[in-house]
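Box 3.1. Reading complex inputs
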Amino acid sequence: MKKLLWFSALVLMMSCATESSEPAKDAPEETVQETQEVNIYSHRHYDVDQELFEEFEASTGIKVNVVKAKADELLVRLENEGADSPADLIMTSDAGRLVRAEQKGLLQPIESELLNARVAKNLRDPQNKWYALTVRARVFAYHPERVSADELTTYEDLANENWQGRIISRSSSNIYNQSLLASIIANDGAEAATAWAKAVRENMARDPQGNDRAQVKAVAAGEADLAIVNTYYLGKMLNSENEAERLAGESVKLFFPNQDGRGTHINVSGSGLTKHSPNKENAIKLLEFLTSKEAQQRFADANYEYPVNPEAQASELLQSWGEFKRDSLNLIELGLNNARAIEIFGAANWN
Amino acid sequence: MLMLLPFFFLLSSTFGKESSNQWSILDSPGLTEWISNSIGLILGVGGLTCALGVSLALLVTNYQFPGVRFFRWALLMPLAIPSYIAAYVFHGIFEYTGPLNQVSMTFSDGWYMNIMNPWGLVIVLSLVLYPYVFSTTRVALQSRFASYYESARSLGLSSTQRFFKVLLPLLSPAIAGGVFLVMMEVLNDYGAMKYFGVPTFTTAIFTQWFSLGDKNGAIQLALMLFAIVGVLAVLESRFHRKHRVTESHRSRTSTPRILKGWKSSLASTFCGFIFFIAFVAPVGYLLWLFSFAKRSRAVSEWFGLTTNSLITGIAGALTVQFLVLITQFVRQLVRGRFTFWIGKSISMGYAIPGAIIAIGVSAVAISFDHTFFDGLTLQGSILMLVFAYAVRFSGVAYQPLNAEAEKRSGRLFEAGRSLGKNSWALLKDLFIPLSRKGVLIAASLVAIDILKELPLTLILRPFNFDTLATKAFEYADDELLYQAALPSLSVILVGLIPVLLLNRLMRKP
């Protein structure tokens, strides 16, 4: 008996919780005027994002609601929810998923002069369905004693024999590796990309494993000479709380590949407006806020990402690495070639 | 039936359309690797947990040595550590910038090792999963077989003979039950496998569906996985049938033998060693990380995170209990093939990766919303999340409840009915009181699982809803281990509540 009482009490409790936690969705005519809000499905889960959302809330009175999960899963959720989805924005930490969202017809064009002025053309969707918010570069972290500077040239060069047993990288399930290969497919063609992935896999010092920090540590430890990593993780490592990690970060040097050619591969964090967004105006306001000089500066300083708004400065650390030429490839190519890249990794036995 | 709806939705969406390229997944180049890795891992982890769990259970129940009372409950504690946290913790301990290398560098060149290979994974997973085997074996040892064992001893069988001829056959259903749970956890693990870079069925299902957008391929893989689970389940129930033992009416607990001299120190050292590496070391490492951590939001949000973890844990555990009890009760009333299969099939969710269940459940919720509401009401609510937990974890509750129910056959019910009691009275006066212990054990197990659960919670949660587990995962996923330390420690601490409850329940025969 007691148990039944408990159970009904619980159901009651849960239904209350449900009501309060749920963004009001029924009767849209009323809610638009009453509660101002914007709902985000986000793959980015950094503290700085949450802080910026809170500032946006404080200055505009628009409440920001977030569900955080992996972008792939959020896209499936958005797709299944269809026209009734409460989501206004989808936020990812790479361009590939934004392109996939666009291809699935989940996004709609955004009209904002402000955004167009702030975000360069190759960093946004051709129909302005999504905009990049921050930029990361995929670079080489190498050990200066075991690699001479004239050995370093391009991504393509890593396929050569002189790198035998010297390279490491993380698993191919990671989107940054997928996007790198997608850019190679777009630039050099699928056949060359397949040969490249196979050769690089054979040149690896160990099976792909761990995250980007783990690759840098392995180079520091002498397990390999060169790691393919994101600038953003290296920045975090150099500012780590743990001295041993800082030392490991300091023992490697950074190289921007392909500077004499197309430029270094970049990827972005970005956000797109959902097709059935119930709070479209608020969503655009939030994007404009996040690309403002002030917000961009915060991203750059807290997360070691390159800002998209040219008015904002990269963090001191990033500036110390120097200016570099970015691959101007339109980022939609990363999405268009993503499935192909995954297949090629599979064929190259690059887990 | 409600519980099976998500699977129907998934199946109908696969086979309903595009029937032309069915089973295209069989041509996939990675297939043999996924199969061999998955099987290798379940055999490796199964074997190691079996060895650890059984030997530790035997030691702490049948013998007396210094610290034995402590080890009886302490050895259960690693159950509170989620496997993905164990994965990053153990890698962190041994890696180049880890504490071992830092300490040893002060007096030598330093020492570190890379444990990120399938062998390392087997050991890491075994260290956090062996308590399943430990607990089932201990319960069996305590309650049932003492008398058999004593008789064997008085008949003059040597200790080796006693072990292989009497004890092992008597214990095998309990061991098989524990190992089965372990294997399920291994097959469904995603976080640890991905971190260690070992591709298995579950990681392949994720890639296939979420990265390649190939839903068909993913569901075909899930079906294959399901077939493996089916084989395991059949093997497990074979053990039950073959070795079913009628419980002695008055099973008395045997007095543990006192170990002396080197044997006793060896026993203490062994238990202490396992407890140290499986629990003290990971928790110590997390504390060490935490001491470095800059202030993060996990600190200010800690109270809310813990409340959310507790609410979902309790609500999920109660819902699962309620549903499983009802099916068990119906099974007792109407004994037949149909009800048997209904009972069995609700444990299906345990064999299916969380993310797949998440999508199935949300498909059900969305179509429910379209039928009854204007807009989405159930989708994205806590109620749906709890329902998803029920679908996923009913199998965990089914095992202990079924074990209790099988002890009592249907005769009591027939007797009750012949006394003119109606179903409600039977449920209230007979079934619930009799199932009490099973219910509590099952509830603790489910609560532990929900506290550690990731993919369901990540995909289905409502807006602005974080739990300790999701927070720990988010930080760890961003390579922010220092910030992940606090929520990780808290998951473990909160998880200890049901673990210790479980221990209390097992102590009382």
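In summary: Strands of chain A lie at 37-42, 63-68, 89-92, 130-142, 167-168, 226-230, 253-255, 266-273, 306-307.
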